[in-house]
UniProtKB/TrEMBL annotation:
InterPro entries per UniProt: dITP/XTP_pyrophosphatase, ITPase-like_fam, RdgB/HAM1
Enzyme class at the top of the EC tree: hydrolase
CC cofactor: Mg(2+)
SUPFAM superfamilies hit by this protein: ITPase-like
Record-linked Pfam families: Ham1p_like
GO cellular component annotations of the record: cytosol
Record's cofactor remark: Binds 1 Mg(2+) ion per subunit.
Molecular function per GO: dITP diphosphatase activity; ITP diphosphatase activity; metal ion binding; nucleotide binding; ribonucleoside triphosphate phosphatase activity; XTP diphosphatase activity
Protein name per UniProt: dITP/XTP pyrophosphatase
Binding-site residues, Mg(2+): 39, 68
Enzyme Commission code: 3.6.1.66
UniProt-listed HAMAP family: Non_canon_purine_NTPase
Gene: rdgB
One of the GO biological process terms: purine nucleoside triphosphate catabolic process
Length: 200
């Protein structure tokens, strides 16, 4: 089965390709099919993921999968949430992972409440008109460190500390990260849904 991934993020593609390999699902990034980014006007991950999946499926005629993910910080009432990718721009920095981490650490200075969750919401559609999208959510809860630690991963991985492991996501191998990450959890739940609803 071929699915269009409604994202141009190379990190997401690599993670999801690895996670979906057992199903024999081939993921193709939408940019490889000439599809531009969808509008993401909504305030929840699920609405934005659905909009992205419908956009990619409508443009390609293929089944589509979209991931909307972000960091939800307890001390900020769950923000940045759906604005995670653009977090740094709120503080005068250019968009990008490094600047997002920098802005977050600056905003967290003096905060004792450092609990946060990385959240991934996956939505899959058989077609743009699919009335029954598959929806899977994963959450990885940890603590925001006071400085980046580790070289692996992307996004907020260097500052997302997992107390049960004593390490950040950026200190884990890709395999260990996928076993625990928000995206890994969502992907495994999505695989189960696809097996049950689409492939049985």
């Amino acid at each position: 089965m071929k699915l269009v991934l409604a994202s141009n993020n190379a990190g997401k593609l690599a993670e999801l390709q690895q996670l979906f390999a057992p199903l024999g699902v081939a993921l193709v990034r939408q940019s490889e099919l000439g599809v531009g980014e969808a509008e993401e006007p909504f305030r929840t991950f699920v609405e934005n993921a659905l909009a992205k999946a419908r956009h990619a499926s409508a443009a390609t005629g293929l089944p589509a999968i979209a991931d909307d993910a972000g960091l939800c910080v307890d001390a900020f009432g769950g923000l940045p949430g759906v604005d995670t990718a653009y977090y740094a721009t709120q503080f005068g920095y250019a968009k990008g992972d490094g600047n997002n981490v920098r802005a977050l650490l600056e905003q967290m200075q003096g905060q004792t409440q450092r609990r946060a969750a990385l959240v991934s919401t996956l939505v899959a559609l058989r077609s743009a008109q699919d009335p029954e999208p598959l929806i899977a959510v994963g959450r990885a809860v940890g603590q925001i460190t006071s400085e980046p630690i580790g070289e692996n991963g992307f996004g907020f991985d260097p500052v997302m500390f997992l107390p049960e492991l004593g390490r950040t996501f950026a200190q884990l191998s890709a395999q260990d990260k996928n076993a625990r990450s928000h995206r890994g959890q969502a992907a495994r739940a999505m695989l189960a849904l696809m097996r049950e609803r689409w492939l049985s």
